[in-house]
Amino acid sequence: MVVEVGVVKSVKNYILTLEGLPSARLNSLVANRDGQRALVSSLEEHQLKALLLDEAVVQPQDIFYLAEEGLHLPQAELLKGRVVNPLGKPLDGRSPLPPNVEPLVLDAVAAGIEHREVVKEQLVTGLAVVDTLIPIGKGQKEAVFGEPRSGKTTFVQDVIINQKDQEITCLYATVGRPEMDVKRFAQKLATAGALSHTIIISCSPKEPVPLAALTPAICFALANQLRRKGEDVLLVIDDMGTHAKVLREIALLSGRIPGRESYPGDIFYQHAHLIEHGGRYNESVGGGSITLLPVMETEMGGLSYLLPTNLIASTDGHLFFSAALHAQGQYPAIGVEESVTRVGRQTQSRLQKEISDRIRSVLADFEDYKTYSVFGAELSEETRAILKKGEIIQEILRQEPQEKIGLKTQILLLNLPFTAFAQKLSLSDFRSCRTKIIECLKNAPEFKALAIKLDSLELEEVINLLNQSSQILEEACSH
Asked: Which of 89, 98, 348, 434 has CB atoms 3.0–4.6 Å from 352's, for a disulfide?
């Protein structure tokens, strides 16, 4: 029996240069007799390079063989509720999982336009500022940018928790985050009853660097497994900036000519060909959808650097988290003016779009007039009314972590600033009875009946009906 072998010619950290293995292809798996594996990363005329996936000491002249079975992970269905590393090794202290019989395809090309459908269903986050002003559709690719300590992780955590009754499988992938942070994240999901519909793939700094480079591709392969069964999947990759730095390190160690900021010249392709898997699919390829939230940390509020602009060009919009807003106690600390959704609004109802436009208009005027009011200038009644509406709207959009508000309640709540009831309340009074108002809008029979017929009403009709029921809200606040 003839067996192909590869001889290690040189070793540079985790990058092996081998001669031989004429049948090897990109992403082929090779292994030595001790079972230590490496993944072929580039092919040259007389040699190839491979990235070591296991902690091992490899010397020149060591022998590697082509592994026919390829890279295997447990089935995606079995991974629900688990925390594992990118190769399927449990990190949650529970029992090992059997590997899938089919190898993962890491370089799969995303299905073409003929297999796609229009994004037309909203992904409900339970956060009013997102669902109403910057909506996300199932199958949308919405980047998440933000400075350090701006609340991005808490936001992602709440979005995942709020999917537990929505029949959506969540896949949370971390690149370079400490194991302890990931364990705390998983514990919060478990406490909220949301871990059972979530898969956590954690590549901590302890893992070999090549595994960090592979983590997004592995997660997209798992997401596609679920999506081909008709499931809706929410995939969060945290963080794409760290992933890009890993790719840069590998490229520089491999001797590749660096591009801008020393990143490899194909860094845009490296991310874009993965992100393209996000979308809503038709039945010809199994249906389902992959909603993508790629996270990237920014510095000093900037989106004009190489990596953020690349990610913006690959996605359907972005949310921008501000450390300044977070420091002021706002959650989620999303800068509405700096955030964009390109396809999310087509998933909204007519009434949602109308109230969104009105809220945005009031907030824009509020920011302008707030500047003038600082100087103590005498303000007209109209200006005072706009300032008060803006303050109440901001108070409505400020939620607590793990506070979920349903879409119908959001619409009623965001119509309140335009009612006589809200204008009679001071900001401090509104703030003190905010929780009671939300509970009343959610549970009072009159408002339940109003919520049922919202889709058939005009915006002014909703405001009038809220005015007619203001006595109920006043009683709720007084108790």
From this structure: 348
In whole angstroms, give the CA distance from residue 404 to residue 394: 17
**pLDDT tens figures, 219-252:** 999 999 999 999 999 999 999 999 999 999 999 9
DSSP character string of 353-376: HHHHHHHHHHHHHHHHHHHHHHTT
pLDDT, tens only, 386-406: 888 899 999 999 999 999 999
- Which residue matches tokens 């203001």? 470
Q: In sequence order, what DSSP letters do the residues of 132-167 get, joined into one string?
A: IIS--BTT-B-EEEE-TTSSHHHHHHHHHHTTTTTT
What pTM was computed for the model?
A: 0.93
Q: What is the DSSP string of 184-203?
A: HHHHHHHHTT-GGGEEEEEE
How many C-beta neighbours within 10 Å does residue 364 have? 13
Residue with tokens 């998933």: 347
Burial group, residue 80, by CB count within 10 angstroms (0-12, 13-18, 19+): middle
| Cβ–Cβ under 8 Å, residues 215 and 274 | no
